[in-house]
Amino acid sequence: MKLDTKSESFMKAAPALILALVLCVSLSVGRVEARSQITIQGSTTVLPIAQRAAEVFMAKHPEVSISVRGGGSGNGIAALVDKAVQIATASRFIKFDEVKKAVANGVYPVPHRVALDGIAVIVNPQNPVDKLTVGQLKKIFAGEITNWKQVGGRDLKIVVVSRDSSSGTFETFQELVLQGARVAASALLQASNGAVADVVTRTPGAVGYVGLGYLSGKVKALRIGTTDKAYVDPQVATVQAGQYPLARALYMFTDGWPTGDEAKFIDFVLSAEGQRIAQEEGFVPLR
C-alpha cells in the first residue's frame, strides 16, 4: 500500500516525536522526585504550631513537602541525632548527654526558640479547688498530699495524671515543680497533652498539667502561686510578662545552621505570620 505524502511525513517524524514525549515525561518525573522533603518530629506541645505552620508554608511553597509527627521531645531529639529527621521540636532545651551523642554521630544541634508557653495545672471542672502553690503541687505530684480536703477541697482521693519521661513537658514540670522529687508511683502516665486533658475530663479527682494550647472548657485551669498570696492565672499575658511561675521556651532544633528550604521554614515560623500562628494555637509569641 502506497502512503500519501502526509502519512510519509508523519512516519518520518514519529521517532522524533516519541523521543520528545519520553524526554518530557522523564523531566516531569524528575521534577516530582526532586521535590524537597522535610521531616519534623518531637514535642506534642509544639505539634500544633509545627503542623499549622507546615500547612501554610506548603501552600506558599508547593515544591516543598513537610511531614510532622509528635512522639515527645526526647524522641524528636533522638531522631535528629540519628539523622532520621531534619527538624526536632522540643518543649525543653537539649541535654548535655544528647549533645554528646549528636556530636559523636556527626550531628551539631542548633536551637531555634520559636515561642513561649505556660504549663497549666488542670483539674476536673467539678473540683471546687481553684488555686495551689508550687509547694502544694510538689507534694501532690510526689504523693505526699493524697486527698483534696488537705488543700481546701472535698474529701476526694487525688488522682495524679502526668506526662511520661520522654516528654519535654514532664521534664520542665519536674524542674519547676518537683525540684528533684519523683512523681508518685501511682501516677497515670500519658503520652500526650491531649491524653492528660482527656483523663482529667473523665476523672473527678484528677489533676494534671498541659501546655496552654490544650486548655478548653472541659477542664479547669488553676491559679498557681509561689507564696500563699501571689496566685497567677495561666494566660498568654502573664507568661509574656514573666509573672506566671510555670513558663518555658519552645524550640526547634536543626543539624547545624539551617540552609535551603529548612532555613526558609524556620524563618517562616519566626516571622510575624508564623508568630501569629503560634498565638492562634494558644501559645505566646516571641514578639
Sheet with the most strands, sense and barrel status: 9 strands, mixed
- Low-confidence runs: 13-33
Please give the share of residues in helix.
40-55%
Cα separation of the termini = 80 Å
Name the CATH homologous superfamily of the largest domain.
Periplasmic binding protein-like II
Strand-and-helix sequence, N→C?
Answer: HEHEHEHEEHEHEHEEEEHEHH
What's the average pLDDT?
Answer: 89
Radius of gyration, CA atoms, in whole angstroms: 26 Å
Write structural notes for this entry.
With 287 residues, this protein is α/β, with parallel strands linked by helices. The protein has 2 domains: 36-116 and 249-280, Periplasmic binding protein-like II (D-Maltodextrin-Binding Protein, domain 2); 117-240, Periplasmic binding protein-like II (D-Maltodextrin-Binding Protein, domain 2), CATH 3.40.190. Helices cover 40% and strands 23% of the residues. The protein contains 10 helices and 12 strands. Strands 1, 2, 3, 4, 6, 7, 8, 9 and 12 form a 9-stranded mixed β-sheet that branches. A 3-stranded mixed β-sheet has the order 5-10-11. Strand 6 (159-163), helix 6 and strand 7 (188-190) form a beta-alpha-beta unit. Helix 3 (73-81) packs parallel to helix 4 (96-104) and helix 9 packs across helix 10 (272-280). The longest helix is centred in the first third of the chain and has 29 residues, at 5-33. The protein is globular and about 60 Å long.
Structure summarized in a few sentences:
This protein is of the alpha/beta class and 287 residues long. The protein has helices spanning 5-33, 47-60, 73-81, 96-104, 134-141, 168-178, 193-202, 236-240, 260-270, 272-280; strands at 36-42, 64-71, 87-90, 109-123, 131-133, 159-163, 188-190, 206-211, 220-221, 223-225, 231-232, 247-255.
